[in-house]
Write a structure and sequence with these properties.
single chain, 302 residues, alpha/beta, TIM Barrel, 9-stranded mixed β-sheet, 8 helices, 14% strand, globular, binds iron/sulfur cluster
Length: 302
């Protein structure tokens, strides 16, 4: 028996994005419309502020800066409620020092404490990594910490990672879940399911962070639903949570993605690029029968 006590909630403010990156694990794109309404966002922040363990909310997406008034209002409300607000963005709008000041100062003025910039080859703004120190200086002068997120494609022959920190994944090799599972490079080595018997990225027995979508669904990993916070009883849900007994987390804890396949009677054959590729494949097959756990809209382009 364990309670759920994440310190961080990644609020997927919108699934709308300028891009449709092949690595995106939320299938965000310009044709996606799912976005928090203003009132739902404010209600959500009030719910979250009542959970003792939650200290930080990260406004992410999709691209949160596409809904700037909503983002600003969320940052202000979160800070007012005593949470630490952060934002995670591709920084598509930053090309000069003035861009940093004009876009981020209105947010630091209302309490933004951290900014995660996706600055890697999957995103399309090399200016960010070339000017990391300038951005850091400008943000720190306004009380806001800078974090750079950077993923690279796995070397074709290298084995999947087995390291498990449970910390928020900001760097490393790209996990093949979401849209990335449909874009495995042809020369990528594939591995037997029995070699992929552990979730490499999450602390499953005591998750440190969860995702929250505009419909109120809490996700363990994008596409794995734990609870809908608009159904209420959120504090009770967190208090009574038992990871061993959860229909998805239990099998993942006991034997990783191959055990998840057994639990949901999904036959698996062939090779997989990493654990997340197998996990996503299993969940995608199970989504038609178990949409309350694996909503189909998180497994395909919309
Ligand atoms: S996709 Fe599955 S194996 Fe990968 S991090 Fe998420 S829960 Fe773990």
């Amino acid at each position: 028996m364990s309670t759920l006590r994440p310190s961080t909630i990644i609020i997927l403010l919108t699934r709308r994005c300028l891009y449709s990156c092949t690595h995106c694990n939320t299938f965000s794109s310009s044709s996606e419309t799912q976005t928090f309404s203003h009132i739902r966002l404010i209600r959500t922040l009030h719910y979250l502020s009542r959970i003792k363990s939650i200290r930080t909310v990260i406004f992410s997406g999709g691209e949160p800066f596409l809904h700037y008034p909503l983002l600003k209002s969320g940052v202000f409300e979160a800070a007012t409620l005593g949470l630490t607000p952060m934002v995670w963005t591709s920084g598509y709008f930053i090309q000069t020092r003035e861009d940093i000041i004009q876009s981020l100062r209105p947010l630091t003025d209302v309490g933004l404490k951290g900014c995660i910039l996706s600055a890697d080859l999957f995103h399309q703004n090399p200016w960010l990594s070339e000017n990391e120190e300038l951005i850091r200086t400008e943000l720190e002068a306004r009380g806001c910490e800078l974090f750079m997120s950077s993923f690279q494609m796995k070397e074709p022959a290298s084995p999947p990672t087995l390291a498990r920190s449970g910390d928020l994944l900001l760097r490393g090799t790209l996990p093949f879940m979401g849209r990335a599972a449909d874009h495995i490079p042809e020369d990528m080595s594939l591995w037997e399911p029995d070699d992929l018997d552990v979730c490499p990225h999450l602390n499953l027995s005591d998750p440190t962070y969860l995702y929250l979508d505009p419909g109120g669904n809490l996700h363990l990993c994008p596409g794995i639903i734990l609870h809908n916070i608009f159904m209420g009883h959120i504090r009770q849900y967190f208090r009574d949570f038992d990871s061993e007994k959860h229909p998805v987390i239990g099998p993942l804890l006991r034997g990783g993605p191959p055990q998840l396949a057994k639990a949901f009677n999904i036959p698996i054959s062939g090779g997989f690029a990493d654990q997340c590729h197998l996990c996503f494949h299993v969940r995608r097959q199970a989504a038609a029968v178990h949409p309350h756990l694996f909503p189909p809209s998180w497994y395909t382009e919309n």
